[in-house]
Task: structure prediction
Amino acid sequence: MSSIDDSIDSVRDQWRSIVPELDTSPMSITGRIRVLSHAIQAGSDEVLARHGLTRADFDILSVLVRSGRPLSPTEITSQSLVSAPGTTKRLKKMTLEGLIERTENPLDRRGSLIKPTQKALAVFEPILESLSRYERDLLAQLGPRHIIQLTESLREFTSVVQAAGPRPTGS
Result:
């Protein structure tokens, strides 16, 4: 065990006292990933809120800006972390706010293509810079060697988790 105990160590100790035969070692990683995910999400959501955006708004704008071309709502959903109904709701809201515009899809007259407006492009870069600064400030507390190690370890673990796919309940 490291010289730094945290809430995950306490949780493992509690489980060990109740179910001594339970192997809680995976919590050393997965529990900390959950804690980090929650804390980073909360911090970045605060940054977005200061700019008047939700996480879903930002995810959709990110997809549109980095794609460099108009996208269908289906493409936006598949490239973002927003559900199809959530995408539809956000696109309506963002249209009213003047952040996106819709044009008819020439390949599917029933559908539309979405692109960011000039207004969206003007506000997006400062928001992206604020988020990047927030994340950079968090990582600045680690040394360069730790950042490289963490990046490589997380890249490998992400690959493992994605390859495993979702597991049925009870397995």
In short: Helices lie at 7-18, 27-50, 55-67, 73-79, 84-96, 118-139, 144-164. DSSP finds seven helices and two strands in the chain. Strands lie at 100-105, 108-116. Residues 24 and 140 are 30 Å apart (CA to CA).
